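Q: Make up one entry.
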Amino acid sequence: MDKTYAEPGQRVDPLLELLETGEYEIDKSKIRDSFIQLWEFENGDSLKPEIQYLTTIALFMYTTHNTLGDYNVRQDKARKMITSALTEWTAPEREKEIAEEKSSDNPFKTFVEKQTPKIDAIYSWESFLLDHKRCDEKEWTYKMDRCWFAQFFIRFGRTDYIETACCFDQIPAKAREDYVDLKLNNMFMKLGTYCKFKYTPKA
């Protein structure tokens, strides 16, 4: 989150390079141009680093969904394409984390210990009202009473994109399916008022 950029397009370029659209021939410059326009609309350069990170992800989702929709790509297919790009984008750091976790005596415990401060940094109290209910080697449960992503997409009139943000939030657990179980109760997709993550060791 502390990387500097000469211009807004550089923020989305790595994601666009990873965006695979299969049989659809997409002009990715349309996504890039829209991203830059909306970044400036959001005064992105003046935002806090953690909000810049969230805004980069949200605008990538929003502009890519919109552009793929213009090419008649079904939304469920577009969601998979977007999530795949985000998975690859976050992979280098995550792979190092997983290697460290698996080399420890208790991978799940190490996962919880290392990821708790990271979650607190990305999903700040200000943006998500995140509260840890339990955090130990047997269970890690936290609840969000606000969702920055949901508020973003509501503001842009695309509540149907909230599910894509939910897919992004599940990437860390999916990469650890051999030793982490996630039970997710996300009411924000139904315009509810909370989201609850419950991680437990794989049985």
In short: The CA atoms of residues 3 and 49 lie 9 Å apart. The chain is about 55% helix and 10% strand. The chain has two domains: 9-89, 91-201. Residues 91-201 form one domain.
